[in-house]
Backbone:
């Protein structure tokens, strides 16, 4: 795979970014986790954030999704400066994060998971109840849009594959009006086929005009779906490249910080 | 739940269509219903036929209902991921409060009953708050309250009565109170009398029905089971209970008010204990320190037989309903057979073990062995 796949869709759209993070620094005591990171995402683009373990990816997305407050730097959301006090604030503004643990409960049905914490109701007073029919219909419809045919909406999430669970989490975020979708290593634990399903889902989400932030340490997955690529190393951005302007090898080298990787690859005989 | 038959654009060829039986297997209450059938068959074969006459059924449904009210509360709490080992002691403690309010203070039921519920809810809230704030297992916190509340009941009874561990005179204090018929005696008396006149139900020689009405605890039991089932399956609060018990972190991240849900469940369980206390104290006319002794274990057993997982996030109120009925049938039913009554404990332990093994297998099915 050298970046020329079905998911290709050209350059980042022009216009204003939805979220712009400027020179973000984050210190934990005497540890500098982020030392000036700039990043933005436009509607309808997939911006990949690449970096090796310990590069600061997790800290960065937690800052973006309201878990951490930046020590220094500015977050602009739709052009206005924003300061999120909690993930809930960020969620309400339209920044949805799908973390690796997915916030899904295996013993509960897909529908119950889909609407967890945001159940639509009918009736009033003591007779207020969940609108079960609508919940089931919406869940089936949203999952079908993402290309997954559920057996039944009351199927337990535990019976779904890892890729399908990712898709439920993504479909849920999209349904509840996400403008920016942050995906934290969505493909890291998946098989080949499930990975392509999730990448296809990302493509569908992007086509709906949602900005996708795709965090990964897998260059091939990123190149398969990304429009722009930002590499993070030791708490700093090493630069942003557009699709087609950079080779997988170059990206890989940037992520790993250069030479050692080239030597390793030499001894292994190919791109890792 | 609306099952879906039309929207299968591309059915997965590796999925076998589920038979009705397989779908049924996934209901949490299935084990308890199977248990009721099994126990019924056992007693039909071995017990005196009098057990399954109307008076026999009322006979075993009464203890089943008293336990069941506790078991439904315990089941909701277990689905929510917590335990309450203090409910048995709570029955005694709430009984003491109720007894003291009616006999020693002389409050009318209109005040005494709401105050007893408020008091129980407050104790439940203390329980819940300690569990949530400390992050300790509810098992250990409520075990402490099992002893604290039992001890307080003893000390309190002695203080109120001046040295006795039994407080009498509740019947005299509550007789004629307009609220009394809702919490003691029998309901639907006229219906039973009417049925007796028509010869539909058994009567004594003088024409009065052998069963004068439905004991109120059975009415409360059925109503509570219905409300709890509706709450769990059809309301957002029910979804939050499942979520809180299934995975606290995931639920919190999704915006479920986990702390509030869990504390409310502790309060509900304590109120169930208070309801049992009010009904049994009014029925007996007195309260004592051993009231509700070991009921916490029986209630949890009924909830587990009813399909609740010990790990939380799965279970049903209907299951606890049937679990309690199994319990009542076994306790009372053995008296109708030639077996020694004391087999009851063996039977109970055996049922618990089978239920846990069964539930474990069911959970693996539901989660697809992951």
Residues:
């Amino acid at each position: 795979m050298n970046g020329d796949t079905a998911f290709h869709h050209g350059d980042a759209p022009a216009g204003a970014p939805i979220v712009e993070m400027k020179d973000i620094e984050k210190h934990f005591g005497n540890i500098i986790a982020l030392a000036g990171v700039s990043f933005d995402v436009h509607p309808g683009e997939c911006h990949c954030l690449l970096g090796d373990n310990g590069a600061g990816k997790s800290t960065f997305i937690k800052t973006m999704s309201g878990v951490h407050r930046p020590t220094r730097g500015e977050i602009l959301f739709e052009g206005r400066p924003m300061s999120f006090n909690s993930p809930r604030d960020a969620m309400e503004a339209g920044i949805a994060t799908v973390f690796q643990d997915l916030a899904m409960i295996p013993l509960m049905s897909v529908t119950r998971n889909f609407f967890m914490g945001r159940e639509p109701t009918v009736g009033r007073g003591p007779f207020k109840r969940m609108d079960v029919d609508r919940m089931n219909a919406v869940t089936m419809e949203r999952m079908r849009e993402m290309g997954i045919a559920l057996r039944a909406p009351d199927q337990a999430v535990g019976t779904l594959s890892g890729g399908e669970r990712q898709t439920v989490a993504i479909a849920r975020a999209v349904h509840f009006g996400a403008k920016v979708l942050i995906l934290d290593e969505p493909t890291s634990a998946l098989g080949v086929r499930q990975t392509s399903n999730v990448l296809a889902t990302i493509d569908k989400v992007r086509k709906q005009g949602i900005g996708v932030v795709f965090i990964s340490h897998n260059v091939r997955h990123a190149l398969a779906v990304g429009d722009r690529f930002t590499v993070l190393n030791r708490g700093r951005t090493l630069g942003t490249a557009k699709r087609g302007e950079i080779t997988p090898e170059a990206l890989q080298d940037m992520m790993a910080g250069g030479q050692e990787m080239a030597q390793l690859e030499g001894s292994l005989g190919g791109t890792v | 739940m609306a099952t879906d038959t039309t929207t299968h654009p591309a059915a997965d060829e590796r999925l076998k269509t589920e038979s009705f039986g397989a779908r049924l297997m996934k209901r949490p209450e299935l084990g308890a219903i199977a248990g009721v059938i099994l126990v019924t068959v056992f007693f039909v074969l071995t017990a005196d036929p009098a057990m399954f006459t109307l008076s026999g059924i009322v006979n075993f449904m009464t203890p089943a209902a008293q336990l069941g009210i506790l078991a439904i509360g315990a089941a909701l709490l277990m689905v929510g991921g917590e335990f309450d080992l203090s409910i048995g002691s709570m029955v005694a403690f709430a009984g003491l409060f109720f007894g003291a309010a009616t006999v020693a203070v002389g409050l009318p039921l209109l005040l005494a009953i709401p105050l007893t519920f408020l008091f129980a809810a407050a104790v439940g809230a203390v329980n819940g708050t300690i569990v949530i704030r400390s992050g300790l297992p509810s098992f250990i916190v409520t075990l402490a309250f099992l002893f604290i509340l039992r001890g307080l009941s003893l000390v309190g009874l002695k203080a109120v009565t001046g040295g006795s561990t039994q407080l009498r005179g509740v019947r005299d204090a509550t007789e004629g109170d307009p609220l009394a018929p809702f919490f003691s005696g029998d309901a639907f008396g006229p219906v039973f009398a009417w049925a007796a006149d028509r010869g539909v139900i058994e009567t004594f020689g003088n024409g009065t029905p052998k069963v004068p009405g439905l004991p109120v605890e059975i009415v409360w039991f059925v109503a509570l089971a219905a409300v709890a089932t509706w709450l769990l399956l059809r309301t957002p609060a029910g979804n939050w209970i499942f979520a809180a018990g299934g995975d606290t972190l995931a639920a919190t991240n999704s915006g479920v008010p986990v702390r509030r849900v869990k504390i409310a469940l502790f309060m509900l369980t304590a109120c169930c204990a208070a309801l049992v206390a009010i009904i049994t104290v009014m029925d007996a006319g007195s309260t004592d320190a051993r009231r509700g002794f070991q009921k916490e274990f029986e209630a949890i057993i009924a909830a587990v037989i009813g399909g609740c997982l010990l790990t939380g996030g799965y279970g049903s109120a209907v299951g606890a309903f049937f679990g309690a009925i199994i319990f009542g049938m076994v306790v009372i039913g053995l008296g109708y057979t030639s077996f020694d009554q004391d087999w009851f404990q063996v039977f109970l332990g055996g049922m618990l073990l089978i239920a846990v093994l069964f539930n474990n297998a069911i959970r693996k099915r539901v989660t697809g062995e992951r």
Observations:
- Chain A has nine helices and twelve strands.
- The interface with chain B takes residues 87-88, 91, 99, 101-108, 112, 115-119, 121, 128-130, 132-133, 136, 140, 144, 149-154, 156, 158-160 of chain A (CB under 8 Å).
- Confidence is low (pLDDT under 50) at residues 1-12 of chain A.
